[in-house]
Amino acid sequence: MESVPSPSAFTQSPGTAELMEQILYEVKRVVVGQDRFLERVMVAMLAGGHLLVEGVPGLAKTLTVKTLAQTLSGQFKRIQFTPDLVPADLVGTRIYNQKTGDFSTSLGPVFTNLLLADEINRAPAKVQSALLEVMQERQVTIAGQTHFVPQPFLVMATQNPIETEGTYPLPEAQVDRFMMKVLVDYPTDEEEFVIVQRVTGPRVEPTAVGTTDQLAALQRECRQVYVDPSLVQYAVKLVSATRRPANVGLKDLAPMITFGASPRATINLTEGARALALLRGRSYALPEDMSDLVPDVLRHRLVLSYEALSEGLSADDIIIRVMAKVPPPPKPLQHEKLVA
């Protein structure tokens, strides 16, 4: 029988909670509301994953990522995807120098810490594939030479749900490389009031409170967060239920799902639960850390059938039904929240 680590093993290193609190404080000085979205961005950063974000324009998606880069003294670049882009516009190319007669390598905008790929579905398949390859391999090969992107490296790609003319849908196999798909909604009336006051008032500049080296250290610490085997089994059962819903008593859902989630979903649920636990001040994951992330991790991985679409079912509707049939395990650790 596997031994459970003692409570003394679940301690954060000194300064971890303070650093994350300072980062969030600085971002919140600039960005109003969007707490859930910001939390997901932080989870992706700590877990080393990438985000696909869907939301109408003007909801502070760019501002959030740019501010986060400033607080971490990291590089931030934004690419506006358009139908006339070519892969070299992203990854770089070789340039001939007439004076010297030599070729030099000009690296593209993907060589940064935080990359915002705006309206990724406006670019043709070749460009989408070039970006998704960098996301997976974290390197680019130009003229036989391999160039590694800076670490840490986070891609946040956005899609506009209200405009589909002139867009190229992301292939299901490639969209699987995103850790989460987050839906960003409009702010509340109170938040919008504060947004207007803040934007029309004196400009607020975020202060750098950390470095990319400290973020890399946080990522390493995140990998040490304890995940109980029962939680991993919970992730496996959830993902398996999207492939074979009849096994959990959801036989009527089988015709609605063409393809279920891949093993990447199980991995991302586990890594995401670790990151969310670290954000919440714990060095061990609880069931709610994982269940909170299930819709974001699974919604873009389900390929629905025409029957589901004709009945107006969304991926979120199916995920809610699956979660109701696959209960989370009892809390494996009953320790009080540990304070660093």
From TrEMBL:
Residues 254-319 form the ChlI/MoxR AAA lid domain. The keyword NADP does not apply. Residues 50-180 form the ATPase AAA-3 domain. Keywords: Hydrolase. GO terms for molecular function: hydrolase activity. Its EC number is 3.6.3.-. Pfam families: AAA_3, AAA_lid_2. PANTHER family: MAGNESIUM-CHELATASE SUBUNIT CHLD, MOXR FAMILY PROTEIN. This is MoxR-like ATPase.
